[in-house]
Design brief:
There is one protein chain. The chain has about 475 residues and is an alpha/beta fold. The protein has 2 domains: about 160 residues, Rossmann fold, CATH 3.40.50.10940; about 300 residues, L-fucose Isomerase, Chain A, domain 3 (Alpha-Beta Barrel). Helix content is about 40%, strand content about 25%. A hairpin with a 4-residue loop joins strand 15 and strand 16. Helix 6 runs antiparallel to helix 12. Bound molecules: manganese (II) ion. The site of manganese (II) ion has 5 residues, from loops. Manganese (II) ion (MN) binds next to loops.
Length: about 475
């Protein structure tokens, strides 16, 4: 929702064995790499912090990293051999994501001129192993990227890891407001909120829906009209069987919910929320359009009191810069041989960041419960490769499920379906993919992203050391 201002520190390992001239060269090469990497479209800047050549220097640097909120993580490079006993204390103290960039200043070995001075100056192959040993022994769970620093694949990998690291850091600030408890009788959306805060950093608070109703009552006509005029610009109005006046009345109820939700969440510092259609005392409609509008702004959400998925949604929206990422529910199978797929949707709350076309603003009965007909945005989902992620609580531990997916825009119209729809195929194939998901106890609520990769999700769960099942 707000721009996240973070940077990464580049710390280059060496030692004093090779003399001052060698260290000056190491410094100059590190500065060159920093400035070149910053010219690439990295999501966050890199700052060269200095050379690490003594235990005290390294320990001091890592302490600074921990206490500087503008720093999301550390990138290290072993330009020369850097004896790793020097790194033990600082690495133990480091509490932020660590990337070991296994690279070398020169791309190729200069056979014509290579001598022992060159070998001593450029011995990352040697230094990487010494440094990697201590990270492995300390179970640091750091990322390792191998390759020439100016190679586009290496730079792309650094960019992807930066997004994970920033999300990891910001994840500890996620606060979820739940309006109502979990849907009655439902198992997989429940779980241990204290353990979730310990492991993921997510802070989860309960509110009665009446607390929101009080704020809805205070919303002015003027505020509603201002939001309604935004709708006119962004969406196709579809009156259906309603006369214009009735339709507008229903839509403006959602506008009031949107305004009230934003005020409520901002006041409490919440960046994610959940609702429950079973708990709508004092509300005329289930929030639909209102929720979709907040999703589009970057708030995390899940239905039926599912606070785990709401927090995960916000988390992955940070990681993806709120691109093509949202809460989803597995709804209906397409089982025809050769066309197997899953229709993803929800009662109302499908994320507009996944829309392939200009959303239609529709009013329609909910068909569950006895509330007034809610307004919602209806659209078809975009196509692309991505991931579906879910978190289930197994009592003794959390399990993260990751399935790589291929989303596609449906060709058939669905004139009687008054909700947005996203279609996807699962890897490695329909039968095996669905079978594995069910066998591992994955939930029916997921967060899907077409902007994130399997590797990014695995980087995150590796940082956390949480059980992860990859279906790919
Ligand atoms: Mn649901």
């Amino acid at each position: 929702m707000n721009n996240i201002n973070k940077k990464f520190l580049f710390i280059v390992g060496s030692q004093h064995l090779y003399g001052e001239e060698a260290l000056a060269q190491v410094r100059s090469n590190a500065e060159k790499i920093t400035s070149e990497l910053n010219k690439f479209s990295l999501p966050y800047p890199i700052e060269f912090k200095g050379l690490a050549t003594t235990p005290d220097e390294i320990t001091k640097l890592m302490k600074e990293v921990n206490y500087d909120d503008s720093v999301a993580g550390v990138i290290t490079w072993m330009h020369t051999f850097s004896p790793a006993k020097m790194w033990i204390r600082g690495t133990q103290l480091l509490q932020k994501p660590l990337l070991h960039l296994a690279t070398q200043f020169n791309e190729s070995i200069p056979w014509e001129s290579i001598d022992m001075d060159f070998m001593n100056l450029n011995q990352a192959a040697h230094g990487d192993r010494e440094y990697g040993y201590i990270n492995a022994r300390l179970d640091k769970r750091n990322k390792i990227i191998v390759g020439y620093w100016d190679d586009v694949e290496v730079k792309t990998d650094i960019a992807a890891w930066m997004d994970v690291a920033v999300a990891y850091e910001e994840g500890f600030k996620i606060k979820v407001a739940r309006f109502g408890d979990n849907m009655r009788n439902v198992a997989v959306t429940d779980g241990d909120k204290v353990e979730a805060q310990i492991q993921f950093g997510w802070y989860v608070d309960y509110y009665g829906i009446g607390d929101l109703v009080e704020v809805v009552k205070e919303v002015s006509e003027e505020e509603i009209n201002s939001v309604f005029s935004e709708y006119e610009e962004l969406y196709e109005f579809e009156y259906g069987d309603y006369d214009k006046e009735t339709w507008e009345k229903h839509v403006k109820v959602q506008a009031a919910y949107e305004i009230a939700l934003k005020k409520f969440l901002a006041k409490g510092g919440y960046t994610a929320f959940s609702t429950n259609f079973e708990d709508l005392h004092g509300m005329d409609q289930l929030p639909g359009l209102a929720v979709q509008r907040l999703m589009a702004e970057g708030y995390g959400f899940a239905g039926e009191g599912d606070w785990k998925t709401a927090a995960l949604d916000r988390f992955l929206k940070i990681m993806s810069h709120n691109q093509q990422t949202g809460f989803m529910e597995d709804y209906t199978y397409e089982l025809a041989r050769g066309r197997e797929a899953i229709l993803q949707s929800h009662m109302l709350e499908v994320d507009p960041t996944l829309a392939a076309n200009k959303p239609r603003l529709v009013v329609s009965p909910l068909s569950i419960g006895d509330k007034a007909d809610p307004a919602r945005l209806v659209f078809d989902g975009v196509e692309g490769e991505g991931v579906a992620v879910s978190i289930a609580d197994f009592g003794t531990h959390f399990k993260v499920l990751v399935n790589s997916i291929s989303a596609f825009t449906p060709e058939e119209a669905a004139p009687n379906l008054p909700v947005a729809r996203v279609m996807w195929k699962v890897n490695p194939g329909f039968k095996q993919g669905v079978h594995s998901w069910i066998e591992n106890g994955g939930g029916h609520h997921t967060v899907a992203s077409l902007a994130l990769t399997v590797d990014q999700i695995l980087d995150w769960t590796n940082m956390l050391d949480v059980e992860t099942v990859l279906i790919d």
